[in-house]
Write a structure and sequence with these properties.
Elements lengths: L3 E5 L3 E4 L4 H14 L2 E4 L10 H13 L8 E3 L1 E3 L7 H8 L4 E4 L19 H10 L2 E5 L12 H16 L5 E4 L4 H9 L5 E5 L1 H5 L23 H12 L5 E3 L8 H4 L14 H11 L6 H13 L7 E10 L4 E3 L2 E3 L7 E6 L1
Parallel strand pairs: 2-3, 3-4, 5-6, 6-7, 7-8, 8-9, 9-10
Antiparallel strand pairs: 1-11, 11-14, 12-13
Helix pairs in contact: 3-4, 6-8
Length: 344
């Protein structure tokens, strides 16, 4: 048993920062844990052009705590109408990826893609320019059970996408199923990676219902059964070079999580590394945490690994019950509970 673990400074390859007061409230949490983060573009209105991405990046940089060198990596929101010539402008502006939200799949996805056939020219331009495609891997067909939507997405969307655009790098984000984990780790497809969230490594769908409905454990894709959680832990702790950290930390005001139409998303940015450490320690794989958190994502994106370090220490502490969130409050995952690890 180790009481301290020093890692190459990690990155978050899937993060929601929002904007305005909300951005100012949550950015310090991610900046304290990570050197860089892939920033999601599903604002209202969404970030669909290179110029909008540059402006959003400027707002993020302006909101950094004093002395922080946190770097946002910007993305565009793919729509049915994203013009192919926007991809060259995006590359010139430093945008690294486009995000595929199937229309209606999750928060602020109403402008998402209805059918990839509308995007073929744009995907071809991305393949030429070397921009990645980040996918929310669920179908939205109402005839498909919510717990099966990821597996169906693989068959209906991902496999044809890989066949038609073999040189396009794809990140299958927040994988939640055994089928998703097996597709990435066993398909022999070097152009597809995956991110895993702390909540999907630590919890199965029972967490949504233990002691009544638990809205702060509700995210999309939803938590799945225990056999799926175990498959995700196996993938995360295997040392596979195309499986890496992506929190999908998604802040929502507490009153919007706790009402009848509660918003989807778990807020984990405050305690992300501590939660991942808990999952890796439970699997007896603390020696694999650095690769997952600090190396594999940078390598897949073709970016240099960070040079600094962070240290996790075995130190019991209590997660705050709530943190400020503009004019509201935000309740992090595990609010009021004890954690065994603390980032020092």
């Amino acid at each position: 048993m180790t009481d301290a673990l020093t890692l190459t400074r990690p990155d978050d390859w899937h993060l929601h920062l929002r904007d305005g007061e909300a951005l100012a409230a949550v950015l310090p949490h991610s900046a304290a844990q990570f050197a860089r983060a892939i920033v999601m573009p599903n604002l209202r209105p969404p970030i669909t052009t290179a110029a909008q991405a540059q402006a959003y990046r400027d707002r993020i940089l302006a909101a950094r705590p004093a002395g922080s060198d946190f770097q946002p990596l910007m993305t565009l929101y793919l729509t049915d109408r994203t013009p192919p010539d926007e991809i060259k402008r995006a590359r010139a502006a430093g945008v690294v990826a486009l995000k595929l939200y199937p229309a209606g799949a999750t928060t602020n996805s109403d402008d998402g893609v209805t059918d990839l056939k509308h995007c073929r020219a744009t995907l071809d331009a991305m393949q030429r320019e070397g921009l990645l495609l980040l996918v929310h891997g669920e179908v939205t067909d109402p005839a498909v059970d919510v717990f099966d939507r990821e597996a169906v997405f693989i068959d209906r969307v991902l496999i044809p996408l890989r066949r038609d655009f073999p040189e396009l790098k794809v990140v299958f984000e927040h994988v939640t199923t055994r089928e998703g984990a097996q597709y990435v780790t066993q398909a022999g497809d070097a152009m597809t990676g995956a991110t895993l969230t702390p909540q999907h490594l630590l919890y199965n769908r029972n967490a949504l219902f233990t002691g009544g409905l638990q809205p702060h454990w509700y995210c999309l894709p939803v938590l799945k059964g225990e056999e799926h959680r175990q498959a995700l832990v196996q993938a995360a702790t295997s040392g596979h070079p195309r499986v890496f950290l992506g929190t999908d930390s998604a802040p929502h005001a507490a009153h919007l999580k706790e009402h009848a139409g509660g918003h989807a998303g778990c807020y984990t940015a405050l305690t992300a590394l501590e939660l991942y450490a808990e999952a890796f320690e439970a699997a007896g794989a603390m020696d694999r945490l650095e690769g997952f958190a600090s190396h594999h994502g940078a390598d897949f994106y073709g970016l240099p690994r960070n040079t600094g370090t962070v240290t996790l220490r075995r130190e019991g502490w209590t997660v705050p019950a709530a943190v400020p969130f503009g004019q509201a409050e935000l309740k992090p995952l595990r609010a009021g509970e004890r954690l065994a690890w603390k980032l020092s």
